[in-house]
Each structure stands twice: as structure tokens, then as C-alpha cells.
Amino acid sequence: MGKPSAPRALPDNEAIAIARNLRVSPQKLNLLAQLIRGKKVATALADLEFSRKRISLDVRKCLQSAIANAENNHDLDVDDLIVAQAFVGKALVMKRFHARARGRGARILKPFANITIVVREVAAAKA
Predict the structure, then answer these.
(1) How many domains does the chain have?
(2) Which of 37, 50, 70, 80 has its CA 20 to 30 A from that of 15?
(3) Phi and psi dihedrals of 95, rounded to 5?
(4) Within-domain flag for 3
(5) rRNA-binding: is it a keyword of this entry (predicted)?
(6) How far is CA 4 from CA 7, 11, 74, in A?
(7) 3-class DSSP assignment, residue 105
(8) What pTM value is reported for the model?
């Protein structure tokens, strides 16, 4: 006797993956989210593979996780997937101090961010 499980928040043709506490500022992570948003997953993976940004490895891993969730948990066709949503949120911020001249200190902020990637299966265009 427990409470009934919550209904699924996403439609049947979508799958989600979340990467939490990535050691990068949300502003920098959002540049990569903009890069892949709305693209087919094969194109998005290729863009992340050859991106020069350090955090693109973690974003690529999150996208691969969303693709695996779609394939294994929801029986979606990998070839018809697009990146429907990719959005970034703030996580914790570590505060540090750096010694400066005349006995002063300067504050150093070390931000963390989360990224959420939603992939959606679209009907293949009949050509």
C-alpha cells in the first residue's frame, strides 16, 4: 500500500536526460545548448564531437544518455530523433577568496550548472 506512481510528464514520443553539477558557468553551457537545439541527434553528436569547448564532452554524454533512454525505455527509433529541448539551469556556486595587495581579498566564484536534454521522435519525411 503505497501511493500510486505519478503519471509520465512527457509525451510518449519523447525521452529526457539530465546532467547535474557540471563544473562550468551556465552562460558557457548555454552556448552548447544553443548549438544542438532543434537538430537531428546524429548532427548534434557530430557538432559536439568536434566542438572545441571543454564541456562538450559532458554534454555529448548527456545527449547519448537521452538517446539510449529513448531507445531502451520508450522504444523510439534512433534515426528519427531530434533534440526537441536543451536548456540550462544554475546549480551551486562555490565561493573562494584570492589574496590581493594591502591585505585585501578578492572573491572568486566557481559556478556549476545543470543541462536537460529532451529528444523527440518525429515522423520520417517520405521522399
Answers:
(1) 1
(2) 50
(3) -105, 130
(4) no
(5) yes
(6) 9, 19, 21
(7) strand
(8) 0.90
